Amino acid sequence: MRIVLTGHEGYIGAVLAPMLTARGHEVVGLDTGFFAGCNFGPTPPTAPSRPRDVRDDVSRADLAGADAVAHLAALCNDPLGNLDADLTYDINHRATVTLARAAREAGVPRFVFSSSCSLYGVATGDGMLAEDAAFNPVTAYGASKVYAERDVSRLADASFSPTYLRNATAYGVSPRLRADLVVNNLVGHALLTGEVRVESDGTPWRPLVHVEDIARAFVAVLEAPRELVHDEAFNVGRTEENYQVRDVARMVAEVVPGSRVRYAPGGGPDPRCYRVSCDKLARTVPGWAPRWTVRAGVEQLYAAYRAHLLTEADFRDRYVRLKQVRRLIEDGRLDATLRWQPAEPVRAA
Question: How far apart are CA 144 and CA 150, in angstroms?
């Protein structure tokens, strides 16, 4: 297939693009470049790339001849989403719908949207949440995914087939590492400081999934028969990989020698607390085969951090999405609406 992949230079995209290419697909990447240069390890292999802001730069020519759009581009987590709630809705919701509409008008038959389990927000009761559970988002990021799914679904018809992948909280090594994800963060703190620092009281539940398994879910859905995935939502992860944060912290302390769990003073329960069932994806899509467990991911992160000589400066700054975007704004390279400015001032040493 010829696949247009938005956000191909991000945390998931840097893993998904080479995975698609390895399976013989032609990938064209569209990315605005917020995280160019935020590499972890060697420069990642990339697909043919076009600099694009999905809000206003994607043209019909970018989509012409494509068999599918895999849409990852977004403000990617709650802290970054809270930078400006309206920007989050503009990029994550409105631009997603505009892109889906443009894809349909260009004759692109498939559209796979990177949604999130964050749209479940605060769960009521102790049961596992399947895809028909009520939405209860507590952040602009989570709400933007609800609205995007709703409005893209309205475009579904006999010639345009969207699918919504509700990713669990990601973890694991990527060429575009993120240190602002809970497992990645706990392992980094443990290695650099000897403390597995937990900011909450450790009780919140999180469904967790390795970034490579998210990429495998995209591949499986893109290659699945249309009738199995048409206008369907799928939770992405393993049902058995729902953990309380304190359990993950203990796991990290077991893997990283000499580290111990430390709870931040005054840390209360995080309102984002839910467990999800991922059985539907495994039951519906034959090609879906997750390979990672959280324990194996912790071991992978620890080994990679050591091998690439992770520094505290990079961990606290370069690999934190909110800090990278704020730096670009402070340097005058992005304006307040997160659009690139023509002149790029040279940063002071």
Answer: 10
pLDDT band at 81 (very low <50, low <70, confident <90, very high): low
Average pLDDT over residues 65-76: 95
Looking at the DSSP assignment, which residues form a beta bridge with residue 50? 30
Q: Write the DSSP string, 137-198.
A: --SHHHHHHHHHHHHHHTT--SS-EEEEEEE-EEES--TT--SSSHHHHHHHHHHHHSEEEE
| Cα→Cα distances 80→74, 84, 101, 327, 340, Å | 10, 8, 26, 13, 17
Q: Which amino acid is at 217?
A: A
For the record, the structure tokens of 269 come out as 């329960």
pTM, two decimal places: 0.94
pLDDT of 346 over the 50 cut: no
Q: Which two tokens stand for residue 237?
A: 């992860």
Place of tokens 């497992």: 183
Give 232-261 pLDDT, tens digit per residue.
999 999 999 999 999 999 999 999 999 999
Distances (CA, A) of 226 to 53, 156, 160, 179, 272: 29, 12, 10, 36, 33
Task: Tokens for 29, please give them.
Answer: 């990447």
CB 37 within 8 A of CB 177: no
- Tell me the pairing of strands 161-167 and 232-236: parallel
